[in-house]
Amino acid sequence: MGSQEKIKEQLLIEEEVVGQNEIILFNDDVNTFDHVIDTLIYACDHTPEQAEQCSIIVHYKGKCTVKTGSYDELEPRCSKLLQAGLSAEIV
């Protein structure tokens, strides 16, 4: 096994160890599209287009992954979504 192959294998192992969490946003019958879009822009740093697409997916599919990253990075973002009255969780 060459040194380049060892480095690639080591990187793959490190990526698996780090792991990524996701914020899942759930559909509800309370919040408007505009409120969801504005909140995603504010809490998750989405562009208006990203936020609109996520809101449509949530509406039709019932849920959507809106942000991925480490738990420590996602926790304050998820808290902002919850404080705005949206239904979300980190998985």
Number of helices: 4
What CATH first level would be assigned? Alpha Beta
Known CATH architecture? 2-Layer Sandwich
Encode the helix/strand succession as letters. HEHHEHE
Q: How many β-strand runs?
A: 3
Helix content: 55-70%
Derived from helix and strand composition plus strand pairing, the structural class reads alpha+beta
Radius of gyration, rounded?
17 Å
Query: What is the CATH topology descriptor?
Result: Ribosomal Protein L30, Chain: A
Q: Which ranges are low-confidence, i.e. pLDDT below 50, for 5 or more consecutive residues?
A: none
Q: What spatial order of strands do you see in the largest sheet?
A: 2-1-3
Report the end-to-end length measured between terminal Cα atoms.
Answer: 37 Å
The number of distinct structural domains comes to 1
Tell me, rounded to a whole number, the average pLDDT.
90
- The CATH homologous superfamily corresponds to Ribosomal protein L7/L12, C-terminal domain/Adaptor protein ClpS
Shape: elongated
What does this molecule look like?
The chain is of the alpha+beta class and 91 residues long. It has one domain: Ribosomal Protein L30, Chain: A, CATH 3.30.1390. The chain is built from 4 helices and 3 strands. The protein has a 3-stranded antiparallel beta sheet. Helix 2 packs across helix 3 and helix 2 (33-44) runs antiparallel to helix 4 (71-83). It is elongated. 23% of the residues are buried. The model has no long low-confidence stretch (mean pLDDT 90). Pfam families: ClpS (PF02617). Keywords: Hydrolase, Protease. Residues 22-84 form the Adaptor protein ClpS core domain. This is ATP-dependent Clp protease adaptor protein ClpS. One of its GO terms (biological process) is proteolysis.
